[in-house]
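Worked problem 6 (solution included).
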Amino acid sequence: MEEYKVLKILGEGSFGRALLVHHRISDQKYAMKEIRLPMSSSDVENSRKEAVLLAKMKHPNIIAYKESFEAGGHLYIVMEYCDDGVLMQKIKHQRGNLFPEEKILHWFVQMCLGVKHIHDKSVLHRDIKSKSIFLTQNGKVKLGDFGSACLLAHPVSYACTYVGTPYYVPPEIWENMPYNNKRY
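Solution. The predicted structure is:
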């Protein structure tokens, strides 16, 4: 943690917070997710899963992983910093004004490319929402926040657990049906 200087808090959630940090050696800014580690060892492994999954993702539309480490009862995940914030904030700043259709299509294509990449790696995000879509000043869209993600054991495996934000839950969950990265 000594290598990083905290510049500001980017956001806070139920499991921890996101920080904007400065890496003293490389002189780069990064986003650092600080997660309080739970007491039980199985829950600790679950917390570590986000870092493991993110480290496997190498795609221009997925938040880039730098490193992760544990200190003082917390897990820290250091990632690429997206300097234009999250899509949710961008929508709020519009105050009801519509985005140009071209911009929406540009964002949507990038989101789809990111989702395709994780699905090709048998990973289900399970919590895609405007708060999980990060933006850069140069127009890039990046999928992040893999805290609810899961790795399917096999490409045709199914998941059955309920995770994610209730407003964004797919119909399969409400109908107690198994789900995966494909709809049949």
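Discussion: Strands lie at 4-12, 16-23, 28-36, 65-71, 74-80, 123-124, 133-135, 141-143, 150-151.
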